[in-house]
Design brief:
The protein has 138 residues and is of the alpha/beta class. 45% of the residues lie in helices and 25% in strands. It contains four helices and five strands, in the order βββαβαβαα. It has a five-stranded mixed beta sheet with strand order 3-2-1-4-5, sandwiched between helices. A hairpin with a 3-residue loop joins strand 1 and strand 2.
């Protein structure tokens, strides 16, 4: 069983997938969404679930530094509920504080251009969310 990690934003969702043993996370893609028009990319997620035989989701939960949940955190919780309803699979909300900044730092250190960073930052953040979860399971 593989685990899918998701970094949910207002315009995109970064997607990562675990290996079959649940040891490592790899970035798959970034999908565009339209929150205002209730288009959350669930059809594409469904396709990826079938392709990778996903058995669980890990959704990044952006908490505030004081551990409270703000509007983006509430949006992630609502997205997690949509996943549970549509796929009937377990969904884990994972504290994602600072993952996007960490992903940005990694890409900067690798000297990735701003234009290319923008294309992969969400996917990289999804990898960090999923890898954090996988490491906690050992």
């Amino acid at each position: 069983m593989r685990v899918m990690g998701l970094d949910v934003g207002s315009k995109t969702i970064g997607i990562a997938i675990s290996d079959e043993l649940g040891w490592t996370a790899q970035g798959i893609e970034t999908i565009r969404i339209d929150e205002e028009n209730n288009n959350f990319g669930l059809d594409r997620i469904e396709s990826l679930c079938g392709q990778y035989e996903v058995g669980k989701f890990v959704v990044g939960l952006p908490k505030n530094m004081n551990n409270t949940i703000g509007p983006r955190g509430e949006a992630s919780q609502a997205f997690a509920e949509k996943l549970e309803k549509r796929f009937s699979l377990p969904v884990v909300l994972w504290d994602e504080r600072l993952t996007t900044m960490a992903a940005e730092r990694v890409l900067l250190e690798a000297d990735v251009s701003r234009k290319k960073r923008k294309k992969v930052i969400d996917k990289m953040a999804a990898v960090m969310i999923l890898q954090g979860f996988l490491d906690s399971q050992k």
